[in-house]
Records
---
Amino acid sequence: MRIAATLKTAYSNALIWNYQSLKQKTASSTQKRYAKNHMLVLGIESSCDETGVALYDTQHGLLAHALHSQIDMHAAYGGVVPELASRDHIRRAIPLTQQVLQQANKTLQAIEGIAYTQGPGLAGALLVGTSIAQSLAMALGVPCVGVHHLEGHLLAPLLEEDPPAFPFVALLVSGGHSQLMRIDGIGQYQLLGDTLDDAAGEAFDKTAKLLGLGYPGGPALAQLAQQGRARFQLPRPLLNSPDLNFSFSGLKTAVLTLVNQQSTLDITTMQDIAWEFQEAVTDILTKKCLKALKQTKLKRLVVSGGVGANRRLRERLNLETAVRGLSVSYPRLEFCTDNGAMIAFAGAMRLKDMQPQVSDYSFNVRPRWDLAELQSPK
Ligand SMILES: Nc1ncnc2c1ncn2[C@@H]1O[C@H](COP(=O)(O)OP(=O)(O)OP(=O)(O)O)[C@@H](O)[C@H]1O
Ligand SMILES: [Mg+2]
């Protein structure tokens, strides 16, 4: 059956069936599927400017994943344009779903559960993934679960071979978040520290903008820093504070002052500023991670989110944990930023442990959603 046809069927079925018969139909098929000891889960990510789709099998692991990034489309505007993002998700989501099914050599009917990013994110963009996920799930008679985007990021390192066991300390450093958490299991997240202002990724992006690099500037700034050397001195806000919080906006302002002091912003100067900025962020993140491990007496650190792709940060964390007999894990580079695999995985973990329940297949998105509200599925 073609996916477009399935979606059409889903919508027309919704009009024909009354709620009660839908409830009965869903309950019986859901129960039947939960009785199986493994599950094939389709994951759909559409919270911002990347459409990600993946198939995760609870027994055989990740079978396929595909991603379309909208960066080129938004670059001309210097940031994400929400309406353009939603429209592009509509164009991409179904072809990407067809692509992962083909890659994994699976049919649509083989899908036993669907996970989608329910929030936080852009409302219109979230609605695209949600409506496709819920419609497909209703047409196939399979359970559907909304995943918290940050839970997806947090659990992404568990997709790798030899995944770290619970409990561990997680450093989530993305475009919108800089948090340290104690993770005791799925849905058992305790916030240890947070940013008081900008996120680490945001600081990379804003500093890159000051240096005239494109959007998003984080990776370009990191690349520039590779050729830089120690020449300037930037502050390390909250480096020695007794808590586990971060603050990055002062660092960005210090870069602005430094840039304004330069008579010319030649390439060498830009490289040296980028080098010092990256060192400052790395110093802060490394020190706070070590402090969190010490405070919690845990031995494992897990890093996720886009800034987790930063080579210098990985180098420092690898070194500092190794000399202390601690371990550190990361997702593969492509799963640091938004992707469908992390949503399929987090959804599979939740579906696997959830009691059979009836879904009303409503299009319920949560553009603002505190991770602390999440509960363990058990
Ligand atoms: N190599 C790198 N070095 C530093 N920063 C990087 C690197 N690669 C990506 N980033 C930054 O990571 C961020 C994107 O990460 P991610 O996709 O996890 O964030 P997001 O999804 O936008 O935010 P959130 O998940 O908090 O809503 C951007 O700010 C980008 O500049
Ligand atoms: Mg993200």
---
Amino acid sequence: MSQRTPRATNAGITIGAIVAEDCGVNLLCRCGHKTSLLPAQISALAKAETRLADFKRRFKCSMCGRLGSSTEIQLKTFTVPDSLSNRRPAPRSKH
Ligand SMILES: [Zn+2]
């Protein structure tokens, strides 16, 4: 009997995969401090093969010092709106 349990995709996802999909991450601390990181900032902080879980663990709240390895800091990915993504400078002709 081989029953496969679906893996939680989020836990094993890598920084490279997130950046490739133009996703940013929000880190939300229990103290209310919130940090948003855009793909460019994320790739500057971590290697592409770094897992998201490890990235979170490295994080420390600058307000209260809580650690990312605890459950008191939550990490969520979000899709960067087109207007914020400057990977493709829209060729717009001005008059
Ligand atoms: Zn905090």
